[in-house]
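Hey, resending since the last one bounced:
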Amino acid sequence: MIPSVNSSGSRTIGLLAYLYGPGKAEEHTDPHLVASFDGMSPDPGRDPNTTLTDLQQLLDQPVMALASHARPAKHVWHTSVRADPRDRVLSDEEWAGIARRIVAATGIDPGGGQPGCRWAAIRHADDHIHIVATLVTEDGHRPDDYRSGTRAQAEARLIEKELGLHQVAPGDGTAAQRPTSAERHKARRQGRERTAREELRETVRQAVAGATSEDEFFDRLADAGLLIRKRAAPFGDLLGYKVALPDDRNKDGQPVFYPGARLAPDLSLPRIRERWTGDAPHPDGGQRTRPHQEDRTAPGAPATARWHAASAAWQAVLVVDSGPDAVAAAHIAAAGEVLDALAKTSAAHTRRELQAAATAFERASRSHIRAVRGHDPALRRAAGDLVHGGPALGYGEDGATTAMAIDMLFFLITAAAHWHAKKGHAQQAAAARQTAEHLRSAYRAAAPAPLAALAHRGRRLPPPQERRHAAQLREALPELVEQILSEPGWCALAATLADAQRAGHDPTALLARAAHRRELGTADSVSDVLVWRLRRTAHLPLGTPQPATNATRNSPPTPRPSPPRAARTAPADSGTTKSY
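The structure tokens again:
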């Protein structure tokens, strides 16, 4: 149940006209009164002999009784109280009780013999009511409605428990501002799926992901087609910015601008600048360039960027699991940048779920534990590499590295969910869990093709070689060997063990290391999980290598190209459950 307090307005009659009217898109049905301050206020919705003016004059009476100079300029208090879509339809009597509790909790009409304001609760839909009050008590004073929104939320949590309704996770004041009803109605009229505020928030998030300077940030906003206004001090220093969609106009035909801080608390210019604290120069000297499409594995290419992202995510898991709170919060925030960058550059078959994951994780990227930026350079660099690497094609090396990156990000987001849960951040933990589900779906779209290619190679291994790899598996993971050998992914794992041995690694030791401190029993496919762990740990290329010839089969391993920098410093596994 969500109370949304909006105070205050200046025209009671205008608000009543809207609440009793048809709505912006004929969405109001059967508007009527369910409760009021005296229990017998006139109802223009059900009484044909009563007008809106009658109700307005009754509510405004304490205001008009004051001398004109003493009347508050804005005297109208308004809140909507909306049930969760999963809740049952409440009766008028239940909504009336809810209204009385909300006005008492907020100080609008405290009861207990204390003077209160006049108010009325109107219902024009199954799932919510609106409460209108005038902010002068019966004895001519201002009510004690300080922090009425917070007090309404606390009372709503109690109401949910008592009525058996869906319990909303309590907030901590770090959530982005919700679109207003006017913004939602405007989006519907314009045929938009989302409001301008939501579109701008996503675009700004993607523009700041991995950016290393104000110039790069504002260039990305301009490239995205946004209108930008910068606010500078008299001496020239930049203080802030506003953005607008070119086709989002007000009634006068002017663009509707939103300051960054009104999009999300961490999108103000000062908070964005914090991300650049401690940013190290990029290994290529800061000259990130878009690679030619035919060179998909060159430095700066999409596949290499995804390998960097996978390795950075794996390192970050350890920090979130055991690092100081402020540093863990910084890595969680930077994980949001990686998700934004990955969604922006994803191939078509994974784009929808990755965009949904990035949007969901936006809520999990902030909490009342302030992130100390500058401790998350690997993740921020990975986000920048993803953006500069450009869109992935979604197959071959791109597809394999995308699946690996999603796999590692799943671990990181799951660790973030656990961290938030331990800290009591209910909304953030729920958002992280929702993100993990979207990543699970994205993985299921990205992984089949590269795993199928590996499985094809695994099925072509000579039987003695396959039996040798099965024996290595039995030695390293005796408790899971039968499950793994029966899984469809065993062939892909056998091919990976063959690649590891060809590259000079000990497959048994690699398997033991991959399982060390990392639970495997709840995974949907243990073999799939081990494929990505082994290939990352051993720095094995994800493309399909040429089969060994008779001349080279018994030769020493050929030196391989150096793996990405982040891959060479990837940490040992740690204890977060994987459950694809």
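The beta strands are 2-9, 32-36, 76-82, 119-125, 128-134, 227-232, 238-244, 258-259.

Sorry for the duplicate.
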